[in-house]
Amino acid sequence: MNRTALILPAIAVLGALLLSSVFIVDEREKVLVLQFGQVKAIKEDPGLGFKIPFIQDVVRYDGRILGLLTQPLEVTPLDDRRLVVDAFARWRIVELKTFREAVGTEGVRAAQVRIERILNAAIRQVLGSVPSQRVLSEDRTQLMNQIRDQARRQALSLGVDVVDVRLTRTDLPEQNLAATYARMRAEREREAADEVARGNEAAQRVRASADRTVVELTSQARKEAEVIRGEADAQRNAIYADAFGKDPEFFAFTRSLTSYERALKGTNSSMVMQPDSQFFEYLRGDTAPEAAPKPSQ
Length: 297
What we know:
Helix content is about 55%, strand content about 20%. It is built from eight helices and nine strands.
């Protein structure tokens, strides 16, 4: 009975020691086994691991790719035009022992602070060597690759690998936006003024061409009208001459009536002439004045 009472606690103690010496490594983790702060073992493959109870400790790190969003940073490109830039980086731990020695007990949080400093320095150096127009363009892949490569070389001292870097924002500072918008507005207004001037010039050319066409058509119409009027006058004179030749007395009578109509047409007309004037021959009697002799044929 006494022996059983001694064996059971001993088994319980041995079981507890055995359980405390075993640890499980998840497939998403990387593990360090530390003894008095010194690295004694590295476990990166998933499965069971062993350590000395109460002497060795297990420190776990995320083995997956981690993300880091940097704070907005002002940079000055080659043309001295300031820009506000922030980036997103993806990184992972590749050398556990180096990582532990570099960041100490603070782990991932301290690593992100130092990686952000490395990224900021790389962003300033790369973007400071090119004009702002290239930074603001859509084709920035080469610049982002340069930043990634430079940050990767410097981050190796931390035991991490910078997988990728992307520029998420490249804007002008707030104090420069108003001036930039004013300059853009002035450029658009100048382009609009140029378009209006070109439109006015084209309209003036069209108007001048139309005026010239009107003058030419009017001149041609007047010319044709004068020709027609001349031909009509000639035809009228021919008719008059033919009528006079056929019946000179009737022709003289109709001409006199036309003269009377035109002379007495006004409501307030005055005429001064002798009473025996030939103008009133057809008004004084029933007979016509002697017609002029018919020209010989």
